[in-house]
Write the structure tokens for this entry.
Amino acid sequence: MEHGAMRQNKYFILLMIIISFSISAKSPSIDSSLVIGVEKVNLRVRPSFLSKKKGELKYGRRVKILVQKKKWVKVSTSKKKQGWIHRSSLGQKKSILKDIGQGKEVARKKYQDEVALAGKGFSEQHEEHYKKKNPKVSFKGVNYIEKIKVSDKALKKFAKRGNLNINF
Amino acid sequence: MKNIFLVFAIFFYGCASTPTKKEMTPRQEYYLGRSVTANILSKFPAYHGTFNNYLNKIGLLIVKHSDRPHTYKGYHFSLIKGHTPLAVSAPGGFILLSTSIIKKIKNEDELAAVLAHEVGHISLKHSQESIDQSKKSSMAAMGVTAGMSVLSFFAKNKNLKKAVDHYNVAVADYSEQVINGTYSKAQEKEADKKALIILIKTGYNPYALIDFIKRLKSDSGGFSSSHPPDKERVNNIKTMLAKLKKRSIFKERTRRFLEYQERIR
């Protein structure tokens, strides 16, 4: 009897090991679908930063890759909008949708907020907490730095005068 | 029975440790970068002047020739007031150079080399690795264990305050690391390699990086203390540039650099 119980116990342990392995093997899988991973990006006619703009895509917008040319990709949206963007403006669908509280993650939003703070996340909410906790740390300087802008036209002119490349 | 508990323990440990492998989203990286930058600026205030506009033109041109021209809200370059030669990058694309380092630079190509090195760190996401280290140490300092992530699921709002506290520590800790030299020697070598590629693609003289490192030799620190010893670093760069002919520096670039440099008070 005791021998039988031990055998049953062994099967149970084996089952748990298989389950834990199957879960840990599934967790790091990479989601191949992509979304826009920057606040906003210009959709371009050709694969170049100097090409004409034909629209704008915002953070979290789902896209389908049609063609890839070096670091540039031609994408299509659900509204059949097509154009070129640089690959670095794309991000992982799963984590970004979680970030903006969309899709399957909505139901878990409350929990996610908690985990985002406890885990790697850092958000506007964190910044507010940080400001309250550290009143001596001013964000005025950061806001000033972010306001400095250079237009594509000015950049092109600057490069040409300095005999620098503009094939980007 | 003990075995069953052991299996459960392994099972839950596996579940708890998996999420730590995830990367930050670009938006999370940006907000962390803002706090780290604000923290650095509380020690070295931002310099306001026309040099920043010139600096951003060089920086943005370089960025467009890098592997990662996009961050959540783009790259931002600024001078900071300080007597220490310093060039630092914070997550999300914030790059800060001290007025003191600008005074040691002789031409635009050297300035581009310093910026390209910092952009290299950002495109290689080196800051993320440093944040992981910083977070680990801050969590350890607060006595937080690996099992905490499982417990936080059940504890809900009770841990909100603790999570915010972790990040207050992490931001302060990371800001200190940025100023004192965050990166490993291997990461510095990788950033140098990236910088050379970016400089060549943009049309700048890649040998400017060697010229500048040699000039800083007598100073303590270099860009920051984490950079490999000068001789070793220069030799590494020379090896990387072995097949490339020396380029002459375009005079107009030096002229405009000196003009803007003179305006710094």
About this structure: Chain B touches chain A through 79 residues (CB under 8 Å). Chain B has twelve helices and three strands.
